[in-house]
Amino acid sequence: MHCWQGDDVTGFDSDTLTGGIAATGNYPGKATNPEQLMNDIDNALRLIPGKHKINLHASYAITKGKVDRDKLEPKHFQTWIDFAKERGLGLDFNPTLFSHPNAADNLTLSNPDASIRQFWINHCKATRKIAAHFGKELGCTSLNNVWIPDGYKDVPADRIGPRKRLKDALDEIFKEKYSKEYLADSVESKVFGIGVESYTVGSHEFYMNYAAKNNLLCLLDTGHFHPTEVISDKISSMLLFADQMALHVSRPVRWDSDHVILFDEELKEIAKELVRCDALDRVFIGLDFFDASINRISAWVVGMRNMEKALLYALLMPHAALTKLQDKKNFTELMVTMEELKTYPFGDVWDTYCEMQNVPQQKDWFKEIQQYEANVLSKR
Ligand code: RNT
Ligand code: ZN
Predict the structure, then answer these.
(1) Ligand 1 close to Cβ of residue 123 (< 6 A)
(2) Given this model, what pLDDT does residue 236 score?
């Protein structure tokens, strides 16, 4: 569960969102402080079955007075650790290389200015230390994911220079080794961002190679590829060459718009791949959407329940039988069976699971959100 759906990716150390990403809409009730955000997370979690981790960004540090991002320490996340411990949650983490004066021109780890590069290197090192601390404290491996906004609006004169600087910066960031039990490191690529349309330093080729060579996890965000490209088709290839990988499940609509994930074909296909590849314990599944045009808690609940629905749906498919039909080149029966399976009574299984997990069934959960909106959100 990504904390940033609750406050439109604002965080607690700035009030603007930069980095070529945007949360659009002005639905009332946004969380503006740690207490509100934690309350909202609690209210969402009551309506979502299963066990969870909360995914934090460094910009959600809870500090007394200003602490710049290169100076962050585990103690600045103690409130979150306590929050997670009390609820049996894990924590994942992300350095925040946007919404900061040193990232104003969308150049961070690839910045030609060595002192700005160093600031961000120090920040990323600090977040690895914090994430490893989460892993140790909570007894649950923490994923620290590096995403940077770096790129250029227009045709660059030099493509390899910024990538070389990024490569060197990452080498420095990942020099220190932590126990795999506590920390997993991933890198997230992107094809373009707003204002960074012509060239992205951290492209997919860059990070896929960097991750493979340095034994890191490659993170695929569903919205970070060309519009007709899907990540469901990439998972099997990645898993043949790496033990683990990570996902940001999102929904691009014409561009990397970070819409709430729906129970749609691509989500089901992603989940089917994770199950078919027997990879449920090798893939970190993170969600990454931020819709400010609807009730934010509802956005979390819809998206998270949909990811779980997709996993359950995939677990119910007769994969071995379908594979046999494919291998026997019986494509007629394969199509017939796949199409019939689509209308099997999946909803009954999902409802039973919700009942077993003590969370509301079907649309019943929405009443609770409406009440919370009337009693709490509308008064903010
Ligand atoms: C941006 C990336 C990145 C962010 C979050 C807030 O395009 O997807 O993962 O959305 O870290
Ligand atoms: Zn992402």
Answers:
(1) no
(2) 98
Q: Which domain holds residue 113?
A: 3-318
For residue 8 and ligand 1, the question of a CB distance below 6 A is answered with no
Residue 184 pLDDT class (50, 70, 90 cuts): very high
Q: pTM surpassing 0.85?
A: yes
Closest alpha carbon to 187 in 135, 150, 157: 150
User: Residue 288: CB within 6 Å of ligand 1?
Assistant: yes
Residue 371 in domain? no
Catalytic amino acids?
A: 147, 188, 190, 221, 224, 248, 256, 258, 288
pLDDT, one tens digit per residue, over 93-111 is 999 999 999 999 999 999 9
What is the count of structural domains for the chain? 1
Residue 57 maps to which CATH number? 3.20.20.150
Q: What is the rounded average pLDDT for all residues in the chain?
A: 98
3-state helix, strand, coil in the chain (%, to 5): 45, 15, 40
**Residue 4: pLDDT band by 50, 70, 90 thresholds?**
very high
Q: Is residue 140 part of a domain?
A: yes
356 domain residue, yes or no: no
Residue in 37, 28, 48, 9 with CA at minimum distance from that of residue 354: 48
N- to C-terminal Cα separation, the chain: 23
Q: Whose CA is nearest to atom 1 of ligand 1?
A: 21
Q: Is the CB of 188 under 6 A from ligand 1?
A: yes
Query: What is the CA(147)–ligand 2 centre distance, in A?
Result: 7
Q: Is residue 331 a part of any domain in this protein?
A: no
What is the chain's length?
380
Ligand nearest to the backbone CA of 249: 2
